[in-house]
Amino acid sequence: MTDPVPRLPTLLEAVLSVGTDLELRATLQHIVDGAAELTGARYAALGVVDPGHDGLVEIRTVGQAETEAGTEVEAGAGNSRGVVGRSDEFVGVPIRVNDEMFGTLYVADKRAGAFTDEDEQLLRVLATQAGIAIGNARLYETARQRERWIEGAAAVTTALLTGETAADALMTVAERARILAGASAGVILQPTAEGGMEIVTASTLDDPGDIVGTTIAPGSPVLEQLLGGEPVFVEDSATDPRMTTHVRTRFGPSMMLPLQADGRLIGTLALPRRRGDRPYTSVERLLATQFASQAALALVLADAQHSRERLAVYEDRDRIARDLHDLVVQRLFATGMMLESTQRRSMGDGAAQDVHAMLGRAVDELQSTIQEVRTAIFALQQPPADAPTTFRGKVLRETAGAAAVLGFQPSARFTGAVESRIPDPVAGQLLASLRRALAAASRRAGVSVIEVTVDSTATLPDGRAGVRLTVHDDGGTDDGGTGTTVTWQSPL
């Protein structure tokens, strides 16, 4: 029997090195290195009982076994079924963390002689210290993960409350979650009218390709859990029978977490990893579930804030529209009435023909101004940030789009009940003609004014009732020209 005392400094050094690092993988490497050095083994390995607990998928080894016995030990370690104990060829001792079996530490192929009882005793001392170090590393890693997820949730909340659109908000949640989870993709699914769920947003390391738009059809085994707001954890998306989408084959471990707040299911956050990647640990599952809950609440708050802002803008626009209508239009109309009366009185006086003509022009200008103000009132009454659904709104959208190119706003005037008189097919043709006319005007030099007129009371040359679009610009007037007028008309 050899005396273990001469190896005491080596033991102390190995024990101390085990606790020098709080990162779990580095701690395990220190354990394996210390075991090999302490026993003079050419080969050391650590077989983990539950790789998924800590996200470990590989055995920590040092050196290579050169004997048949060593090869057998490696196979046993890899399957976490190696024999605990000692033979001349190898020694295996258990490592426990808080009375929980963590794994088995093996050494094999001693450089000089066979393994002794003292070798086994030294390894057991090292294994005891290793259990303490692994427990500390686990606590440290859990604290770091929790800190990252909390910071990520705070960042998402801040981003969502700064006024992002709904699509951008979902992408923010998906991308941040993907980064925090170390996933291959961050995916948002939302319920469909047919009772299924559809991927509406995807953040991936590569091109999302055909991921967005993928639908989980009604009747899918996993759908009931998702629509019920329950988390779903999948070990391998490609082989799990609950997964039915065509994109499942490219993914492995996955978490599908409900985005739910105040009983309202916004959707599901899915975080799949690539095939062959390590499974999610219990800590990662818990933290991701908490993140999803906080993100769902932030989405609801952001939507409520956006709705309040929209309502405030709409109310302010409505007030401006009322003020314009009640004050400006009434005054303009009264002024026009007075001018028309004056014009009629001056018609019998031959000396007042010039005044009569000037009054006529003034009346025309007032009528034009009234039309412009009414158009402005209509535009103010449109819900902000929404695509227009009325014909007037669509015409105004086209002129607003042209303004971005022209540098000024074209005027728009409507005559007659354009909403009720112009059918949808004619309206579509008119809008296409308007778009072409505005584009042509934007390419002409010297254009500073564009007037758009839609008259739904027009009479066509053949006598039929129709609608007439007129787009006039002042291009070329500086050279004595009269500008350009484009006219389009159609029967109603």
Automatic annotation (TrEMBL):
<dbReference type="Pfam" id="PF07730">
    <property type="entry name" value="HisKA_3"/>
</dbReference>
<protein>
    <submittedName>
        <fullName>GAF domain-containing protein</fullName>
    </submittedName>
</protein>
<keyword id="KW-0808">Transferase</keyword>
<dbReference type="InterPro" id="IPR003018">
    <property type="entry name" value="GAF"/>
</dbReference>
<keyword id="KW-0418">Kinase</keyword>
<dbReference type="InterPro" id="IPR050482">
    <property type="entry name" value="Sensor_HK_TwoCompSys"/>
</dbReference>
<dbReference type="Pfam" id="PF01590">
    <property type="entry name" value="GAF"/>
</dbReference>
<feature type="region of interest" description="Disordered">
    <location>
        <begin position="472"/>
        <end position="492"/>
    </location>
</feature>
<dbReference type="InterPro" id="IPR011712">
    <property type="entry name" value="Sig_transdc_His_kin_sub3_dim/P"/>
</dbReference>
<dbReference type="InterPro" id="IPR029016">
    <property type="entry name" value="GAF-like_dom_sf"/>
</dbReference>
<feature type="domain" description="GAF">
    <location>
        <begin position="165"/>
        <end position="309"/>
    </location>
</feature>
<feature type="domain" description="GAF">
    <location>
        <begin position="23"/>
        <end position="144"/>
    </location>
</feature>
<keyword id="KW-0902">Two-component regulatory system</keyword>
